[in-house]
Design goal:
Blueprint: H1 2-23, E1 30-41, E2 44-50, E3 53-54, E4 56-62, E5 64-76, E6 79-97, H2 100-107, E7 116-137, E8 140-162, E9 165-171, E10 176-188, E11 191-200, E12 204-210, E13 220-226, E14 228-237
Antiparallel strand pairs: 1-5, 1-14, 2-3, 2-13, 4-6, 5-6, 6-7, 7-8, 8-9, 8-10, 9-12, 10-11, 11-14, 12-13
Length: 238
């Protein structure tokens, strides 16, 4: 009986030691990782013009978007530098109304009225975050990070409903964006959760044209906005 008790105690100590070794994080000068997550955008719209008429009562309804990224992390004591390359898909509804004088013209069939349109944007981004570990004890860590972010919107689509007819608009430019991003990260072993907020430093002025129209009198949309986005990611650090 005593031998069995000693054997079980030895086995328990061995399992505990292996478990502690498994969850222990060794400090490395260089790590890399990957993460996936969701985002929601609340762009700051300075102006919205449809066929030369400026819209009124512009407001937003956010939709959930998606993102995925790979990154590397250069560690210096409690600080780290994290370059990141990510893909983002964002969506959102923009609600608005046209001036009353314009609405009266719509009855005559001159210019169709739109109450909302759906924005879908696909982007490539490269933030460079500088972080600091507020807590770094064993397998647990809490970090704060901030840094610049470059973005390239390689595809943008605006879908509208004019007089119950769906029109799809494409961007005839390829706008670049520069922003600042901040975030908090919580790590448990090599698994981490990350919350970030991004704000655009530059205004993105985009002109759109009707994808289905082949005539010189095609309808046009012009929008002047600034990025404003929150995101949540789940990742793994190798």
């Amino acid at each position: 009986m005593r031998k069995l008790f000693l054997l079980l105690s030895l086995l328990l100590l061995l399992v505990t030691a292996n478990a502690q070794k498994f969850i222990q994080i060794e400090d490395k000068a260089f790590n890399f990782g990957a993460k996936v997550g969701y985002n929601s955008t609340f762009p700051i719209i300075n102006s919205l013009t449809i066929d030369g008429v400026e819209a009124e009562n512009v407001r937003l309804q956010y939709k959930v978007g998606y993102q995925a990224s790979v990154f590397c992390r250069i560690n210096v004591d409690r600080f780290f530098i994290q370059p990141d390359f990510s893909w983002q898909r964002t969506e959102g509804n923009i609600l608005f109304s046209l001036p009353a004088s314009t609405e009266s013209d719509l009855v005559d069939g001159n210019t169709p009225k739109a109450d909302q349109f759906l924005l879908r944007t696909s982007s490539l981004a490269m933030p460079v975050m500088i972080g600091y570990y507020l807590v770094k004890e064993g397998p647990y860590a809490l970090s704060f990070m901030a840094g610049p972010k470059l973005k390239y919107n390689y595809k943008a689509r605006y879908t509208t409903h004019f007089s119950e007819i769906t029109n799809e608009y494409i961007n005839d430019s390829t706008p670049f964006g520069v922003g600042i991003a901040t975030g908090l990260g919580v790590s448990i072993w090599r698994l981490f959760f990350e919350f970030t907020y991004e704000f655009g430093l530059n205004k993105v002025e985009s002109d759109f044209k009707d994808k289905s129209s082949q005539t010189p009198t095609e309808r046009s949309i012009s929008i002047d906005k600034r990025t404003n986005m929150m995101s949540f990611s789940l990742g793994f650090l190798f």
